[in-house]
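User: Structure please.
Assistant: Input sequence and predicted structure:
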Amino acid sequence: MNMASLSSNCPPATVRELLASDALDIHFQPIVGLGQADIHGHEALVRPPPDSPWPAPDRLFAAARLEGLAIELELACLRRALRCWHQQAQPGRLFVNMSASALVAGTGREGLAHAVQPEDTGALALSGVVIELTEHEHVHDMPALQEAMATLRSAGISLALDDFGDGRSSLRLWSELRPEYVKIDKYFTRQVNTTSHKLQTYRALLQIAETFGAQLVAEGVETADELRVLRDIGVPMAQGFFLGRPAPQALQALAEAPRQVLHSREIAVLPQQRHASNRALTAESLRIPAPAISPELCHDDVVTLFRQHEQLHALPLVKDGQPVGLVLRQRIQDLYLRPYFRELMGRRPCRLHANLQPLVVETHTPIEDLTQVLTSSDQRYLTEGFILTERGRYRGLGTGEQLVRAVTEARIEAARHANPLTFLPGNLPITIHIERLLASGHDFVACYADLNQFKPFNDHYGYWRGDEMIRLQAEAIVSACDPRRDFVGHVGGDDFVMLLQSRDWEARCARAVQRFNQGALALFDPEARQAGGIHAEDRQGVVRFHGCTTLSIGVIQVGPGMFGSAEEVASAAAAAKHRAKQQRVGIFRMDALEARSHFAPEPNPYAAPCS
């Protein structure tokens, strides 16, 4: 009885029997081009035969390694995949997985094209084959792998780097092999629509791919929201269950659900960094070079050094490379004005009149982390400055003035990206999102939300309760919006922007107004709630009665070609908000003709009372 007849009666018990029986199953999963919403190719995925001892492919390959047949199994999978693909006569590219060891061994056998026998492929052009390099951690002989790839490319075969970012592959491998495709591990795709660091990773990888001339393939796309984000940031290709599951027959056309996402003009609301920061800016940027002096250096010599370095406010005392104190110019000058100080102390060590517990900061400390210094109880650094070290060794000096300026500038820059009170996107992300909406040509609604009677409330109850009111405003607006379609930004103070793609935008705005107006009453004292407001000064300093704080939203509907820039949209929305406050209504919808006449910036709302 031959092996083929044996395989027809019972499943193979060993990998060797499996290879002899040629009983491997091949499934195909589509790889989709996001720009054209077309099927770029399919990945061939091996499946053990039913009722075999190996319930999953990884168990099969583990068994092959134990039998010493790992490379033989991979080559058999390649041959089987090519034969099945040829039988289906499918267009597009065929992606086949191979380890580096199998790839090198296969090309060593008179070339991989010869290892795949002609009767397996028929007229299949090898230029349509893409080898997905797996098991990157086993790439130990880079020259051999590069030589193998040169052989494959001469036959028209392309290379893909599989599962990039899973901890095994590396940028060095990408750089040295220059694959035509790089498949990004599904970890970075999962919830990319809600995870800002994954989104930023994709953006960085897109830049690297442009540098190396590769195309990215996002693996593991399982939802419409993930697909929409990947499409919007320019990822060229994707693969995953939402686009198509592995099946014995290759997919002829893209399913309706992913096709609708890719053809839709609706844009994704990209996840924002809630705590905007610039970790790259460190205390090193504050460093002032200054000569180190010994704690035993006498006062007279210190005076001489200060004369030679007129720009320095202090000199560091350093022993064995480590700072032990700080002597101040002003302190020394004051001492030398005292009678007989020079005569009595001029030749004595300067450590006697130095600060032996100075503020010491490591140069790699991010500027934002130095905020705690500004709020500490010990404020001597404002006049004395601080010492900068690197791994405990002296590097230079810094001044309190520098520190205050740097932290302030860092906070201002961070506020442009995310408001520090609500952590909602600030001015820059708002502008970027409006520009994306205008570029898409999709209809949307721009809303500008502001509070009525907020200044009297804030003056009467104080900033702490005023901040609570603004947080309530943010919560009411955000809760009314669909995070997948609607963008909420915080301009500053009680000014918020809503950019809505939801069709039921009017009902959402009404919910935001109702929720805020009800919640705001709880922030007033019982007496004020009963009276319907408070007595407080208006903007001219006149005490009068002010009703309880309410929310007003100005609305404009934006169609294709109506506005030419984000600034025009923002100005028109602000004008609509101004009208809402003037008319003391919760929602004011400005028509298109009037909206286009308000491209100029909104008048200063503090110039005259309107609430």
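The chain has a mean pLDDT of 87.
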